[in-house]
TrEMBL record:
This is Valine--tRNA ligase. ATP binds at residue 551. Its main location: cytoplasm. Belongs to the class-I aminoacyl-tRNA synthetase family. ValS type 1 subfamily. A motif ('HIGH' region) lies at residues 45-55. The gene is valS. Residues 838-902 form the Valyl-tRNA synthetase tRNA-binding arm domain. It is found in: Cytoplasm.
């Protein structure tokens, strides 16, 4: 006997244990040796992480695909694993050392610190894997990988060595995003642009002649970074800016440093911004660095690794420059303090023209929280241009496609303009770069130290002392190899041969550049194959109001909390139902609660079936059903299976969920079971009809379990086990076949029962729209109908009276006066409402509602048509306005439908 209520926590634990015991999710099961393979690699979550709502969405969508394909008979490998997450993990461990009052990283030294990191990883680094299992992720957990596993580390080293030998990896001095707190280069992805209220300082730079003598002229520059002016090596003006034409080619004397620098013409300078003249500091600004390259300017660092000013002992003063004594006191000052001092020094010399408030985006480290510096330093780079061209061609050729397709355009734009990839990080945790230097600074690249030593000794003709590069590789370098390194590459493993290239990559659109593109480039270059045939990019999950989630706002939704409150199935179905292609998801607890109610509805329907003797029969054949109601329900089930399968094949997860929901809630629970009650519970019912209906109900619950399993695996696995009692060798639902209901569509059954369903639905809708009292019984008049409709209505007469709350059903040639008219599948149905509702008052009320709704739509259209509003308003606000308009437009349509029904007949 089924429990009275569905308990997600108890069921999830029991079902999860059953999957584990059976090894249900293992790839290469013997019975599937000849099956077509299907492979998804998990975007590896950080080993430091815990399940956040983005993970929940991403992994739910992957799991739906994997369970769907597994049920379709394919040999599925969902490859799991975690990422070592360089800077994030190092930060966590360093913080832990500080909190426990242990020696810091520098005091411990590299070897001892890395022992601490590995110990932490072993102790708590796998928490997210347990949370993914709670979500129901059907990965092959026996194949779990970590980006610093021995085999994956070998793949990383080989890739570096090979790309260096091919001339694609090289060392260069360029600008990078530098985190002064962690003292390392970081990727663009780890940089947050924070809108900051700052200032724009206007400084006068004196013009000098060829001999270096002041001419009395000045050129005014505007800057947000006064402290970097000591590294200026030019002033740029637009070549078409007539204000400065005569000054191009001349020089200014840089204040405080007294270094003569040129005035150059460059299109980077915008005549409409500031004064139209900009200072060029190649070592401290990415745009200035490019200007410097175009004009052969020197790049001068005036900040050290910690963001403190450098003056004495470096090359800030050259070409005979003689710094003013006050400028020397800047040495060693923090950049923020130095900024104030530079402004004061310029003001003392009468060179500060004015200060204006200026709100602008300032880059911050997403983990350190400090302002990021563009910093000139030696780093390792990959020349990805030739790799990018292969990736672009693969997409052009259709080897890999993007869903939604518009992401392809973004992919092309970025790869077409791709810059060299900085792959070195000044960290200790990660894959240490396989480069050794001898005493003369020569580079020796090798897989091992012994190999490097041998190469160096041979090159020098004798023993050489080597020092290994202390830097590690960018985390994205190792994760770029993930689709094939997890399968054993560079070894020619059976897994690599069977599952690579993989099939679908499911990930967030925010890492299209940083991960997807790099996997494409590396996969093609190293294996000569695309790493996946389809890239499905989902949008972001926002809070219920559409705002982006953040800890500072306090609006972060915890998926584990939702699972504990509503169950994993409810959360999964919610995410799938809201995953419309290309649209961000607005998620709140109310939606999850709604789909928890959906799970409860199915459980209660199954329990109702059990209480009414509906049991599975191994000999039942749905194609042999004779009752029109049963044939209708079986046909609707066949339609649902077809719609869900087609939607999942097209990655329309929301449409798949909607089709499943419609069949289960609306068709099966609300209509089929309701219409079947007289057969299941009535007196004197034909025994054969009752037996067929009981078996059909049980059969359909089984099909529903299959249909919903990819979305709601725990509930459906439990129903499968309960309903399968007495059915020999049934096994797990996770390994059962996807429903095949081909041939069960029945046009005549759909015509008859569909008419009854539509008629009752239309009557209920009309009653609601015209405010007919809930308890009132009203007459129904069918106008000018033929004999077929009369016979059909006669067969369902009592059902229609009961479900539509009708007092009688009449057949007439004309619609009665003062009636609401409905058109149901070509049949005119009229509801005489005179004396039941005040039709005139109802029309007036609806006209008033129509006017209010039209005005509201006009107000929203005014906002969305305002270019200034669209340009300035946050994305979530604009989206909210669009959704409000859609809602109001739908409401207006319903109002006008109701008005059209309230027609007076003369």
């Amino acid at each position: 006997m089924m429990d009275k209520t569905f308990d997600p926590a108890a069921v999830e634990a029991r079902v999860g244990a059953a999957w584990e015991t059976e090894g249900a999710f293992r790839a290469a099961r013997p019975e599937r040796a000849g099956a077509e393979p299907y492979c998804i690699v998990i975007p590896p979550p950080n080993v430091t992480g815990s399940l956040h709502i983005g993970h929940a969405l991403n992994n739910t969508l992957q799991d739906i695909l994997c369970r769907f394909e597994r049920m379709r008979g394919r040999d599925v490998l969902w490859q799991p694993g975690t990422d070592h997450a360089g800077i994030a993990t190092q930060m966590v461990v360093e913080r832990r050392l500080m909190e426990t009052q242990q020696p810091g990283r520098r005091e411990l030294g590299r070897e001892a610190f890395l022992e601490k990191v590995w110990a932490w990883k072993a102790e708590s680094g796998g928490a997210i894997i347990g949370q993914l299992k709670r979500l129901g992720a059907s990965c092959d957990w026996s194949r779990e990988r970590f980006t610093m596993d021995e085999g994956l580390s070998e793949a990383v080293l080989k890739t570096f060595v090979d790309l260096h030998a091919q001339g694609l990896i090289y060392r260069d001095k360029r600008l990078v995003n530098w985190d002064p707190k962690f003292q390392t280069a970081i990727s663009d992805l780890e940089v947050l642009q924070v809108e900051t209220k700052g200032h724009l300082w206007y400084f006068d730079y004196p013009v000098v002649d060829e001999a270096g003598t002041l001419t009395g002229e000045t050129i005014t520059v505007a800057t947000t970074r006064p402290e970097t002016m000591l590294g200026d090596t030019a002033v740029a003006v637009h070549p078409e800016d007539e204000r400065y034409t005569a000054l191009v080619g001349k020089r200014v004397l840089l204040p405080l440093v007294r270094r003569a620098i040129p005035i150059v013409a460059d299109t980077y300078s915008d005549p409409e911004k500031g004064t139209g003249a900009v200072k060029i500091t190649p070592a401290h600004d990415f745009n200035d660095f490019e200007v410097g390259k175009r004009h052969g300017l020197r790049a001068i660092n005036v900040l050290d690794e910690e963001g403190q000013m450098l003056l004495v002992g470096n090359d800030a003063f050259f070409e005979g420059a003689e710094p003013e004594p006050p400028a020397l006191e800047l040495h060693g000052l923090d950049r923020a303090v130095a900024r104030k001092r530079v402004v004061a020094l310029m003001e003392e010399r009468g060179l500060l023209l004015k200060i204006e408030p200026n709100a602008h985006a300032v880059p911050h480290g997403d983990r350190s929280g400090v302002v990021i510096e563009p910093y000139l330093t030696d780093q390792w780079y990959v020349n990805v241009k030739p790799l990018a061209e292969r990736a672009l061609q693969a997409v052009r050729d259709g080897q890999t496609r993007f869903v939604p397709e518009n992401n392809e355009k973004v992919f092309f734009q970025w790869l077409t303009n791709i810059e060299p990839w900085c792959i070195s990080r000044q960290l200790w945790w990660g894959h240490q770069i396989p480069v050794w230097y001898d005493e003369e600074g020569s580079i020796h690249v090798a897989m091992t130290e012994a190999e490097a030593q041998s190469k160096a000794d041979a090159a020098r003709g004798g023993p050489v002392t080597l020092r290994r590069d202390e830097d590690v590789l960018d985390t994205w370098f190792s994760s770029a190899l993930w689709p094939f390194s997890t399968l054993g590459w560079p070894e020619a493993t059976p897994e690599l041969a069977r599952y690579y290239p993989t099939n679908t990559l499911v990930t967030g659109k925010d890492i299209l550049f940083f991960w997807v593109a790099r996997m494409m480039m590396m996969g093609l270059h190293l294996t000569d194959k695309v790493p996946f045939d389809t890239v499905y990019l989902h949008a972001l999950v926002r809070d219920a109001t559409g705002a982006k989630m953040s800890k500072s706002k306090g609006n972060v939704v915890d998926p584990i909390g939702l699972i504990e409150q509503y169950g994993a199935d409810a959360l999964r179905f919610t995410l799938a139902a809201l995953a419309a292609p290309g649209r961000d998801i607005k998620l709140g607890p109310n939606q999850v609660e709604s789909y928890r109610n959906f799970a409860t509805k199915l459980w209660n329907a199954s329990r109702f079936a059990e209480l009414n003797g509906c049991g599975l029969d191994a000999n039942y054949r749905p194609e042999s059903a004779s009752a029109v109601l049963n044939r209708w329900a079986l046909g609707e089930a066949a339609r649902a299976v077809s719609e869900v399968g087609a939607a999942l094949d097209a990655y329309r997860f929301n449409d798949a969920a909607a089709a499943a929901y419609r069949f289960v809630w609306n068709i099966f629970c609300d209509w089929y079971l309701e219409l079947a009650k007289p057969v299941l519970q009535g007196e004197g019912v034909d025994a054969a009809l009752k037996d067929e209906t009981q078996k059909t109900v049980a059969f359909l619950i089984d099909q529903i379990a299959k249909l919903l399993h990819p979305f709601m695996p725990f509930l459906t696995e439990e129903l499968w086990a309960i309903k399968g009692e007495g059915i020999a060798d049934r096994g797990l639902l996770a390994l059962a076949a996807w429903p095949n209901l081909t041939g069960l569509s029945d046009t005549s059954a759909e015509t008859e029962v569909g008419f009854v369903v539509d008629l009752v639905s239309e009557i209920r809708s009309a009653r609601s729209e015209t405010n007919v009292p809930a308890g009132a019984q009203i007459p129904l008049v069918l106008v000018g109908v033929d004999a077929n409709v009369r016979e059909r209505v006669a067969r369902w007469h009592d059902t229609l009276l009961r479900l539509a709350r009708l007092s009688e059903i009449r057949f007439e040639t004309d619609a009665p006066k003062n009636s609401v008219q409905l058109l149901v599948r070509g049949t005119v149905a009229a509801l005489p409402l005179e004396g039941v509702v005040d039709l005139g008052a109802e029309v007036a009320r609806l006209r008033k509602e129509e006017g209010r709704t039209v005005a509201e739509i006009g107000k929203i259209d005014g906002k969305l048509g305002n270019a200034d509003f669209v340009a300035r308003a946050p994305e979530e606000v604009i989206e909210e306005q669009r959704e409000r308009r859609d809602s109001e437009a739908a409401r207006l349509e319903k109002i006008r439908e109701a008005l059209a029904r309230l027609t007076e007949q003369s």
